[in-house]
What does this fold into?
Amino acid sequence: MAEPIKVLLVDDHQVVRRGLRTFLEVQEDIVVVGEAGDGAEGVARAEELRPDVVLMDVKMPGMDGIDALRRLRELDNPARVLIVTSFTEQRTVVPALRAGAAGYVYKDVDPDALAGAIRSVHAGHILLQPEVAGALLSQEEANSGQGRGSSLTEREREVLGLIADGRSNREIARALVLSEKTVKTHVSNILMKLDLADRTQAALWAVRHGMAG
It folds into this structure.
């Protein structure tokens, strides 16, 4: 049996953390390994506990969720961060995605949908609602990265198109009959050649330049 997905809850409201924990405790493949009440504590706990997924609030006193995301990236922490927010404004969600979040859900999310979102980001998917993807794209320069795409090999272009479709490395490997290690190498090369920070930016670049499936 596969190891359960280890989840860390980061939110400044104890009642929210309790509610999230209650949602998740009934899931056989998910285990809550810890909680934190602000961004700084969340970063420290993520380094200590090494969770697979962090459920992160955005608006918190002291270090907020966006600064915590940036700090986790600086520390090269491998946890996938899923933003859990009551804020629907794009000015809140878009910076979080730019800082490295794998997606977001709202605090009134259905329990089954929350569990599904955790499984999805853990598998390597990116959770982007169409309106937020549009906002991210609209903030890019119209010609951002335009010339860099010519440096991609044909195989790298195939991998990039599948990233834009939300496929995980495992799914890409299966689709292209490659090893997962080879796919990871292609992804690293794509990010380097396009001067992008993560898969979210790669997916958006592919959509802008007509390479999505």
User: Anything to note?
Assistant: The mean pLDDT is 84. The first helix runs from residue 14 to 25. Strands lie at 5-10, 30-36, 53-56, 80-85, 103-106.
